[in-house]
Design a protein that fits this description.
The complex is a heterodimer of chains A (115) and B (114). Chain A has 115 residues and is mainly β. Chain A is built from no helices and eleven strands. Classes of the chains: A mainly beta (115), B mainly beta (114).
Chain lengths: 115, 114
């Protein structure tokens, strides 16, 4: 059961344009979401997060939007830069039960930003 | 640099063998998590330790075990290795259990089973 889904395996964008990465979830108990960025041969690095009490969180060029009713979140990168080329994962932590703290990851989206 | 260290970086071994992966969390972090990333499975949670105690188990095989030592470093032991165990193994740490702290990931150990 894939509780966090990223349905687009890849995305290609021109430098300077907007990149929009999407993520859907099925578990209505999730109330906090994180985006991680991963370069080859490195571990994932935390990018930005959002709590379910908000519908938007912004950090520089990165903005995450949360639509709770649709169980959907998106990461916007504006303007996109070639250095943003990486794999992006959305993730949600378990907030109760025996797996408290466990992160459930989406499958990832490979973002390529062309100069 | 996340502050989480993992050794070794690469490991090549044969089927049936046993290996140990090591992780040192960020200074001050009490929680350690292990994840497996294989080509077709994405990042899968294996197990979590908090201050030396096992706190949560995910899709971890019985052939795999882990522990967290008093100095908070952790080891993941993989035994009776199979070809399908070839994957990247990541360790992550966080300050404490509450899920609102982001987890910081190490660079991973790439395991190849031949």
């Amino acid at each position: 059961d894939q509780q966090v889904k990223q349905n687009s395996p890849s995305l290609s964008v021109q430098e300077g344009r907007i990149s929009i990465l999407n993520c859907d979830y099925t578990n209505s108990m999730f109330d906090y979401f994180l985006w991680y960025k991963k370069y080859p041969a490195e571990g994932p690095t935390f990018l930005i997060s959002i709590s379910s009490i908000k519908d938007k969180n912004e950090d520089g060029r990165f903005t995450v939007f949360l639509n709770k009713s649709a169980k959907h979140l998106s990461l916007h990168i504006v303007p996109s830069q070639p250095g943003d080329s990486a794999v992006y994962f959305c993730a949600a932590p378990q907030t109760g039960g025996t797996s408290y703290g466990k992160l459930t990851f989406g499958q990832g989206t490979i973002l390529t930003v062309h100069p | 640099d996340s502050g989480v260290t993992q050794t070794p970086k690469h490991l090549i071994t044969a089927t049936g063998q046993r290996v140990t992966l090591r992780c040192s969390p960020r200074s001050g972090d009490l929680s350690v998590y292990w994840y497996q990333q294989s080509l077709d499975q994405g990042l899968q949670f294996l197990i979590q330790y908090y201050n030396g105690e096992e706190r949560a188990k995910g899709n971890i095989l019985e052939r795999f075990s882990a522990q967290q030592f008093p100095d908070l470093h952790s080891e993941l032991n993989l035994s009776s290795l199979e070809l399908g165990d070839s994957a990247l193994y990541f360790c992550a740490s966080s300050v404490d259990i509450p899920s609102y702290n982001e987890q910081f990931f190490g660079p991973g150990t790439r395991l190849t089973v031949l």
